Every structure is written in C-alpha cells, then in structure tokens.
Amino acid sequence: MSERPLFERLVHDLKGPLSPLQTAAYLLRRPELPDERRVELAETIERQSRRMAGMIEELGDWVRVQENRLVQRMRPIDIQMLLDLAVGAVAGSSAVGEVAPDLDGHHLLGDESRLQQALTSLVAFAQWRSPLPPGLRAWRDGDTALIEVSDSGDTPDNAQALLVDPLPEPHDLGLGLRLVVAEGIIRAHGGTLAAHALSPGLAFRIALPLAD
C-alpha cells in the first residue's frame, strides 16, 4: 500500500474513538445525569482513551520501523522464555511453546521486549483466527533458530500480504499495523518473517540468527 492511501486510512481509523469520547464528555456536563449513567460514561471515556492510546502507540512503532530505530537494547535471550512471555501476553491464550532439544543451550541476541512484541502479535492473530489454540514451536536449522506460529483457520488468498499491508478489519480494534510492525522488528534483528498458507490455516515462520 502506498503512503497516501495508508495515511488516509489511518486518519479515518483514528477518528473512531473520538465520537464516543466527545459524546461522553458532552453528556457528563448535564447536572441532572444519574450517577449510574455517569459511571457508564466514565467507563466509555476510559475504554476509548485506551483504544486511542493503543492506536497512537501502534502508529509510532510503524514510523520507527520505517526509520529503522525501533530495536535498541540487544542482549542474549532464552528462546523458551521468549515463547512463554509471548503466550502470557495474549489474554486467554492456551498455546504452549515447544522448543526442540537441538536449541538447548542456545540463545538469540536481540531486544527482548521488541521480539516479544512481534511474537505476541503473531500469537494473538493466530488465536483470533481459530477456536483451537495456536501452534507455537521452535527448532534449529544450522546457525538459525526457526519459530513457527500456526493456526487452523481459513486459508488466506495471499498470506504474505498480511505482513505488508494493514489488516482491513483489525481483530484488536487497532490500526491493523501490528503484523507489519512485527515483520519490521524481525528484519531489524537480521532475520526474516514469512507467512504461508496451510490447508486449512496459516503459518508464520520467523528465522533469526543464533547468538551462540
């Protein structure tokens, strides 16, 4: 997607939380408003504010990916811990990260918080696509660690486009950029992120160089 249509869409999507925020703020000025209604409106303001904050953070990450300044702190990362942290960050996820024995004693070198962010985005998307728990496994291929996130949902027509263009209907009510940002994070670590259609389902495969 070229920048102009992307920016036009982002402007449109960012307006989404504004209408309920403005309405709630206007209604709260009414002195005769019942207390229970005030509580409901306050909850609306809090919920939509969190949504807008998430959108702004998502957009900021996308900009930093374009400028290659998203990844900062590099240190050795335990692969099993990375998988466990990613699953734990997805509400209600029952996925289990499986690390092959050939990765015992090996680490990744990277920005732990950003790699967790990328993997969490993939697990959350896979969980949304299928009622079954996502598959999550890691194994070694020479000097490379491979991490795969898979689901049993519908087979997409163009899997790789998910990592290039914003999602048309984001599952998290965001801007649809989280998978694009995830691809940028992996690329900034000297790795690759690819999407493959399954029958049925979808698989994301991360390839990252091992630190040792």
In short:
The protein has six helices and seven strands, in the order αααβαββαββαββ. It has 212 residues and is α+β, with helices and mostly antiparallel strands. The radius of gyration is 20 Å and the shape is elongated.
Account of the protein in words:
The chain has 212 residues and is α+β, with helices and mostly antiparallel strands. It has two domains: 64 residues; 135 residues, Histidine kinase-like ATPase, C-terminal domain (Heat Shock Protein 90, 2-Layer Sandwich), CATH 3.30.565. It is 44% helix and 20% strand. A five-stranded mixed sheet has the order 2-4-5-7-6. A two-stranded antiparallel ribbon has the order 1-3. A hairpin with a 2-residue loop joins strand 6 and strand 7. Helix 3 runs parallel beside helix 6. The model has no long low-confidence stretch (mean pLDDT 89).
List the helices and strands and how they pair.
Elements: H1 3-14, H2 18-27, H3 35-66, E1 75-78, H4 79-88, E2 97-99, E3 107-110, H5 112-129, E4 135-141, E5 144-151, H6 178-188, E6 192-198, E7 201-209
Parallel strand pairs: 2-4
Antiparallel strand pairs: 1-3, 4-5, 5-7, 6-7
